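HUMAN:
Sorry, I am quite new to this. Are you able to go through these amino acid letters and fold codes? The numbers rather puzzle me.
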Amino acid sequence: MTKKAKKKRISGIEIIAYLVVTLAALCCIVPFLYIISVSLTAQEVYVPFEFRLFPKKLSLENYAYVLKNDAFVTALLNTVFITLVGTFLCISVTFTYAYALTKKDMPGYKFMISMVIASMLFNPGIVSQFLTVKGFGLLNSRWALIIPVLSSYYYVILAKTSIAGIPADLEEAARIDGANDLTIFFRIILPLSKAVLATLVLFLAVYHWNVYFNSVVYINDSKLRTLQVYVKTLIIDNAVDSIDVEKVPSELIRYATVVLAMLPIVVVYPFLQKHFVKGVMVGSVKG
């Protein structure tokens, strides 16, 4: 086979690969476009099961109707609280723990690192987790969705690897200038760990925003349910509480609710994306 023929063959494979990736992307994008299109369609021109990627008549009245729904607003506020507080506390615990693990001469270092290794090898299971949450009196509380997941061995190892890559000379120089551990942590460690910090913030924010299973297991009070549980109730269970289906087709409300549920993460992701690849690659290559 000549070099020219081999080049043509490679080009053909690349074309097929691009086509496959394009089709896969369309399979993911088209449903979202359809949902957005339906949610923005005016109620008087909506036709059920009519496929349109662009609304026949643009209107925001469906979103206004959803935002006036007390059940949606309550679920949204619960999710915002869990996401903000949970992400902040998880980041605090993860980075302080990871910073401590970089100090091998610290008292109790072997015990702390063994706890990380043990959590990698053993999973307590949902029953023991439920009994633990119940034993601490966290059932039917938003804290049941925050405290049990304050840290993860994967996040701790990722943060520890990033912190360990910071030159020790910086800390020594700071200590010579009179800086204590807190000053070094907040003025040196965190600023130099922005990539991993942004990555973990993205991971944790997405997790807390989309929390569903733990909410179903630990929370029975409808006033404390999260946004994802509310969306599931609306979409799968066909529950249309507080919706006047004679005035507003329930499909428009469902699709508008879905868009509002995923909008915050879609908006935040582009601002953290530039740090994402760098953050997840920390420690994967040794120089």
Q: What stands out?
A: The two ends are 40 Å apart (CA to CA). The CA atoms of residues 90 and 150 lie 5 Å apart.
